Amino acid sequence: MTKSTFVDYVTQDLLSELSGVSARAMFGGYGLYKDGTIFGIVVDDTVYFKVDETSRPDYEKRGSTAFTYAAKGGKRVAMSYWEVPTEILEDREALAEWAERSLKISRRMAPPTKGTG
């Protein structure tokens, strides 16, 4: 599948239980958004969701790993997005729950917008 076809499959089929999900191209992959908040990424036909200390153990016990990229000098940098386990991708209800949890994490971790607080 081409990247755009796979991203369409993710947003329109796999995440169909979660209305209003969109994708935007970014840095060689795609960001997954709901209501303007990024909660996941798709890179090389792999789906990653935002994690924090509360959700990371669920990913770890299923053998998932963090998304990494090569920084200048070749050093690998891990991000707070972890690969969604296959068994979750294959269960639309569970996938919607994991996506909602990642969305809440992203909203909680987002910097305050100008003019607030």
Which descriptors would you attach to this protein?
117 residues; alpha+beta; Yope Regulator, Chain: A; 6 strands; globular
Account of the protein in words:
By secondary structure, this protein is an alpha+beta fold. The protein has a single domain, classed as YgaC/TfoX-N like chaperone (Yope Regulator, Chain: A, 2-Layer Sandwich), CATH 3.30.1460. The chain has four helices and six strands; from the N terminus they run αββββαββαα. Strands 1-2-3-4-6-5 form a six-stranded antiparallel β-sheet. A hairpin with a 2-residue loop joins β2 and β3. The longest helix is centred in the last third of the chain and has 18 residues. The radius of gyration is 14 Å and the shape is globular. The mean pLDDT is 90.
Main sheet record: 6 strands, antiparallel
Judging by the overall fold, what is the CATH architecture? Answer: 2-Layer Sandwich
Derived from helix and strand composition plus strand pairing, the structural class reads alpha+beta
Number of strands: 6
Q: Helix proportion of residues, in percent?
A: 25-40%
Q: Strand fraction band?
A: 25-35%
The CATH topology is Yope Regulator, Chain: A
Number of domains: 1
Rounded to an integer in angstroms, the radius of gyration calculated over CA atoms is 14 Å
Strand order of the largest sheet: 1-2-3-4-6-5
| Tertiary shape | globular
Report the span from N to C terminus. 45 Å
Note poorly predicted spans: none
Q: For the residues shown, what is the average pLDDT?
A: 90
Name given to the CATH homologous superfamily: YgaC/TfoX-N like chaperone
Count the helices. How many? Answer: 4
Tell me the name of the CATH class: Alpha Beta
Order of helices and strands: HEEEEHEEHH
